[in-house]
Automatic annotation (TrEMBL):
Its EC number is 5.4.3.8. Pfam families: Aminotran_3. It comes from Gulosibacter bifidus. Its cofactor is pyridoxal 5'-phosphate. Keywords: Cytoplasm, Isomerase, Porphyrin biosynthesis, Pyridoxal phosphate. The modification N6-(pyridoxal phosphate)lysine is found at residue 272. It catalyses: (S)-4-amino-5-oxopentanoate = 5-aminolevulinate. CDD domains: OAT_like. GO terms for molecular function: glutamate-1-semialdehyde 2,1-aminomutase activity. PANTHER family: GLUTAMATE-1-SEMIALDEHYDE 2,1-AMINOMUTASE, GLUTAMATE-1-SEMIALDEHYDE 2,1-AMINOMUTASE 1, CHLOROPLASTIC-RELATED. It is found in: Cytoplasm. Pathway: Porphyrin-containing compound metabolism; protoporphyrin-IX biosynthesis; 5-aminolevulinate from L-glutamyl-tRNA(Glu): step 2/2. This is Glutamate-1-semialdehyde 2,1-aminomutase. InterPro entries: 4pyrrol_synth_GluAld_NH2Trfase, Aminotrans_3, PyrdxlP-dep_Trfase, PyrdxlP-dep_Trfase_major, PyrdxlP-dep_Trfase_small.
Length: 450
């Protein structure tokens, strides 16, 4: 029995499902999740001594790779001086300044510890500012696990949502309206049906929690316009995309593109990269909106560990190292991996779509024309544009692909509905390892049966 299997048995006796976050349990791919012993750069080593290239990268935070020496040193230096002083420290100001400098569409940020807290607070703030209750979210977008955002679409368009989890009261999800992604007509219909009652639309800047599903060109701009003409706020959730897809997040990337730019959300949320692997998240907005938060305004929010100096040191150091060269390295690694995977799928005759925004991507399995996918990917393949389309893929192929990659020395996200994460540390040696593992994995995917 492997050491990981042994520890997983022990874990299941003291922790539900043996994990502290559900997707880690390998529920959708089967098998025993490896327990990590150490990780460095692009590589992760489990307690059985298996060393693999990591395409999870902490689920996004590790833009520079695992345990970058300067980030480790900042954590060491700070923690030796203080761990949790309970009052203000300069690092909090430095991190807020760094974020505001990169994202000129916001003036102030409030630091919290998780993305869940950031979006939960953003929604409370939007309600406090507008004096309205209803929220629109898109099916397949993930914004953390607060009650009102664990909502599933009801039967018709623009209807109030049903609970997406046991333990969430209908009284709470009835304040959320769930509509299909990339569907502005559905958003307009919801505003028409609930005139004067919608506080905000919350959207991932570019969705990446149902696999990657790019916003159609102009979608975010139109969405902002619909919100603003109806007196509602737009909450742009960049917890995953922020400072990963570009120096100013996915919002920043769209502003450089004339077919997409020219919009501002009212509230941003960030997480993942801004903590560099430690727990930091944030919400940010223009001053007149942020004024509503306590202690200045009437919208309450607080946190014992908010702006923790050790976590903030990891975040500030990560952002300062995330320069143009770092983004160019991640983008180039993404180009290469997409090309390698596509080439292997084509070689074995496995139909696919690549779902991609810059350095963030995933692959969907199946013949998109037959499955009714209505988008187009960079190879001219039909690709899914919303959750209903994404779910129609041949997801039974992914466990075979996943385990062949794992056996070939590549640590993949353990679900077909997760993005693949690269880092600036994914160098030629790491890409070589991926190239070596791919032929068998592509064959396993093509041979898989439902
Ligand atoms: C990860 C994520 C969250 C939740 O962040 P946690 O730190 O896991 O609570 C919220 N929104 C998006 C878009 C995410 O990817």
């Amino acid at each position: 029995m492997s050491a990981s299997a042994d520890w997983f048995d022990r874990a299941r006796k003291v922790t539900p499902g043996g994990v502290n976050s559900p997707v880690r349990a390998f529920g959708s791919v089967g098998g025993t999740p490896p327990f990590t012993h150490s990780a460095e750069g692009a590589w992760i080593t489990d307690i059985d001594g298996n060393r693999r290239v990591d395409l999870v990268c902490g689920w996004g935070p590790l833009l520079l790779g695992h345990s970058h020496p300067e980030v480790v040193e900042a954590v060491r230096e700070t923690s030796a001086r203080m761990m949790c002083p309970g009052g203000s420290t300069v690092g909090e100001v430095e991190l807020a300044e760094e974020i505001a400098k990169r994202v000129p569409a916001l003036d102030e940020v409030r630091l919290v510890s998780t993305g869940t807290e950031a979006t939960m607070t953003a929604i409370r703030l939007a309600r406090g500012v507008t004096g309205r209750n209803l929220i629109i979210k898109f099916a397949g977008c993930y914004h953390g696990h607060s009650d009102g955002l664990l909502a599933a679409a009801g039967s018709g368009l623009a209807t109030l949502a049903l609970p997406g989890s046991a333990g969430v009261p209908e009284a709470i999800t009835s304040q959320t309206i769930v509509v299909p992604y990339n569907d502005l007509e559905a958003v307009r219909a919801a505003f028409a049906e609930h005139e004067g009652q919608i506080a905000a639309v919350i959207t991932e800047a570019s969705p990446a929690n149902m696999g990657v599903v790019p916003p159609a060109a102009g979608f975010n701009r139109e969405l902002a316009e619909i919100c603003h003409s109806n007196g509602a706020l737009m909450i742009c959730d960049e917890v995953l995309t922020g400072f990963r897809t570009g120096p100013a997040g996915w919002w920043g990337r769209e502003q450089q593109d004339s077919t997409r730019g020219g919009w501002e959300p009212d509230i941003f949320t960030f997480g993942k990269v801004i903590g560099g692997g430690l727990p930091v998240a944030a919400l940010g907005a223009r001053r007149e909106i942020m004024e509503h938060l306590s202690p200045n305004g009437g919208v309450y929010q607080a946190g014992t560990l908010s702006g923790n100096p050790v976590a903030v040191a990891a975040g500030v150091t990560t952002l300062r190292l995330a320069d143009a060269a770092a983004y160019a390295a991640v983008d180039a690694a993404a180009d290469r991996v997409v090309e390698l995977v596509a080439t292997e799928f084509q070689r074995v005759g496995q139909p696919f779509a690549v779902q991609r925004v810059r350095n963030l991507f995933s692959f969907a399995f199946g013949d998109g024309a037959a499955l009714g996918w209505s988008g187009k990917d960079e190879f001219g393949n039909a690709s899914p544009i919303n959750e209903a389309e994404v779910k129609r893929q041949e997801s039974f192929r992914y466990p075979a692909f996943f385990h062949a990659m794992l056996d070939g020395g590549v640590n993949m996200p353990p679900s077909v509905f997760e993005a693949w994460f690269l880092s600036a540390a994914h160098d030629d040696a790491a890409l070589e390892q991926i190239a070596k593992a791919l032929p068998k994995a592509a064959e396993a995917a093509a041979a898989a049966t439902a």
